[in-house]
Amino acid sequence: MAERKLFPSLFNLRSGGFLPPEFFALGTGRTDLTDEAFRLHVAEALKSILKSPPSPAEAASFLAHFYYQRLDYGDPEGYRRLAARLDDLETRHRTRGNRLHYLSIPPSLYETVVERLGAAGLSRGGRGGWARVIVEKPFGRDASSARVLSGKVWKVFNEDQIYRIDHYLGKETVQNILVLRFANIFFEPVWNRNYVDHVEITVAEDIGIGHRAGYYEEAGVLRDMFQNHLFQLLCITAMEAPSGFEADRVRDEKSKLLRAVRPFEADRLESVAVRGQYGRGDVAGVLQRAYLEEPGVSARSTTETFAALKVSIDNWRWEGVPFYLRSGKRLAQRLTEIVVQFKRIPHLMFHPLRAEDLSANRLVLRIQPEEGLSLTVETKRPGPALSLGTVGMDFSYEHVFGESPEAYERLFLDAMAGDQTLFTRSDWVDLSWSLLTPVLERWGDAGPPPLYASGTWGPPEADRLLAAQGHRWSNGK
Ligand code: BG6
Description:
Number of helices: 13
Strand content: 15-25%
Bound molecules: 6-O-phosphono-beta-D-glucopyranose
Structural class: alpha/beta
Order of helices and strands: HEHHEHEHEHEHEHHEEEEEEEEEHHHEH
Shape: globular
Radius of gyration: 24 Å
Strand order of the largest sheet: 15-14-13-12-6-11-10-7-16
Distance between the termini: 33 Å
Number of strands: 16
Helix content: 25-40%
């Protein structure tokens, strides 16, 4: 995490002139490293991750801001030494004592680390500056554990100091959904049950779990992807317009939306929820092993690597419009998109064609890859005969704006600026876990999930979930 995302993002922020010259970063961990060894480690990360690695001079000037201190996470004395080191570095770099703690640690350590930070006075900044803490997901593992964790964290940090990070919210294309919806006049009038037939939200990955078996065996796809990324996409797509782009106005609307989601009934789960686990199969011509064959995975594991949910939103805007959410590993391709499928026109005047012969309009918001959007419209094919065809009006981010910055850059900057708009508030965490907990419990006792072949779009049950209402996944087409 630090190597892949944090160091490169800090580097880009600094190169872009977004970090003050006085900043410094103090890395901690159980390994015993000198500052020099840590800097080499950061340098390696920059070299391997950045598309255009820095020149030696650029790298050296950046790395001079990095320090390291060994920390045994349970040892209170270690935190006191950390506090003293911070004081010292703050003097040396003439910072104002503003401190951003980034907890890139196993979630099982959150409580201990937060408690020890508090005991060492690190929930406050130095010299009257602020202190904030960035916490990665998963925040808890179900409704009750998340509540307990929140209670513990609040003993040390106030809610306005806590930045629960969801990197999907830092993606340019995700933020663009808000701009599309609320900075254009023509989407809002049709963004409701009168014009929208159904909505699909897909976050498909072609990769497996890699070396993360320890984490993934405990998590599964609902905890890993739905409780955070997919539910955030759902909220951004379906929430009401906030009155301003400010943290609590936006987050109030998201929580309101989750409150309107119809609870999944554990005893009627089959009609709204599907799970699966990848078996062997071909991805891009290469035979991949099954989940159960992944190193570190128990041969009897019942962890799901795929899920699809049919979400109903009980409010005036969305009553009767299904939102189909799905995510999985080792699927046919990497694809994150939101498909807003509009209704058919009520009557077609172009006899003998019938309204059902036409494709209904469809808006695809492509989050990744090939970020952009596409709207299908019916047109007349040139020629004397009346012949209609569907064309796409496409916008590609990269074409127009070039490459987008890494999500973490924006999120870091916002945390430094004290803007929580793109971070998850505790009530939202609570609501999202409350919705998913009955499903997690039910699946926890349900034995092995159905298998799907790697390189496909998941188990056939996921297709049936939509077919029941005459719908089909669009699968990037
Ligand atoms: C992470 C999950 O939050 O998101 C991973 O833990 C997943 O399992 C990743 O691979 C996907 O992120 P992105 O940005 O590649 O879509």
